[in-house]
Amino acid sequence: MKKIAIDLMGGDFAPAKIVAGALAFAKDNPDVELYLVGIEKNFKEISLPSNCRKVVVEDYLPMDVKPTEAIRRKNSTMYQSCKLVRDNVVDAVVSAGNTGALLACATFVVGRIKGIERPTLAVPIPTKDGFCILADAGANIDVKPFTLLQFAIMGVEYAKFMGIKNPKVGLLNVGTEENKGTKKEQEAFRLLREKFGESFKGNIEGNDINMGKVDVVVADGFHGNIAMKTMEGSAKLIIEILKSNIKKNVISALGALLMKPVFNKLKEKLDPRKYGGTFFVGVNGIVVKAHGNSDEVAIYHALKVAKQGIEISLTSKIEEAIKDVWNSRDSGN
Question: GO terms for molecular function, please (predicted)?
């Protein structure tokens, strides 16, 4: 039986929405045993199904907690959830808590895969024909060129996990020419071309991401997070403009009624809850970061993502991919 820990006190709507999503998932997935990690009052007036276990701790982390503090507060719901993975009690952990805190716990409690310099937050981004993977989306603000290469390798494995057979890779930059960007981007360009050959499509710009020009977008966390948040804001703007114009007159309302199936499909595609959560790729276990404002639907899907990660042995696949890179590097190729 697959085993997943869920941090009940992580997220803006904890614990109510987290508990609701976890219980709904447990009901629909009897082949998964959930470890609900929370404080004592989280479990009052709720009835746990047979495939749920209660793990009571004394502390939890606020959403504005500093990563260093997250490591010191060893009896928090987040720390103890990650410790369950480290101790092989569970196969995966899900939390909607502070991103930096979860990265710290994932890195220093769960531990990194051998050879990984920094784990990456790899996020699925909607495109016109499906989705692409953005790595990194905010976990690592400043990195070295070789770390960007590792992000690409981990992003490719994640893309394969998501069903893309031969992922194309692009480097996020301020222009498509090879000499664009700082020395970091220029050196990363060279490394990516050497590693991926024809699968590396060179530099891409921000407006290429949603058009699906590549399947894996490589960036440091600073630029990746700005790109992701800008796209989220643009999606909200589109939906709000549509809503506002539909309400203006009867003809618009009738047109909207006829276009309802299209609008519903658009809304679903742009709804981050349906992606649920994303992996901290590069840690020695399955760690899923759910969005901070996750409701029960998002938590349900985050747990689904964790289950899928266990089923396809994502950690082992990343480990093998990174091992190949180090072997190639040591041989001088």
Answer: acyltransferase activity
